[in-house]
Amino acid sequence: MNVATITTANCFSKFSATASPMEDGSLEYWLRWQVPVCALIFLLPTVVSLRFIITRNNTYTAKTHHLWMSCWRNLHPCWLLLYRLFSFISMAYLLYQTVLAFGPFVFYFYTQWTFCLVMVYFALGTIISAHGCWMHYKERSLPNQEKKDFTSFKDNESSIKMQVPYNQMQFNQEAGFWGNLMQNVYQTCAGAVVLTDVVFWCLLLPFQSGDGFKLTLLIGCMHSLNAIFLILDSALNSLQFTWHALTYFVLWSAAYIIFQWVMHACCFTWWPYPFLEIATPWAPMWYFGIALVHLPCYGLYVCLVKVKVSMLSKMFPHAFLRAVVANEKQM
Question: Cα separation of 287 and 277, whole Å?
Answer without folding.
Answer: 9
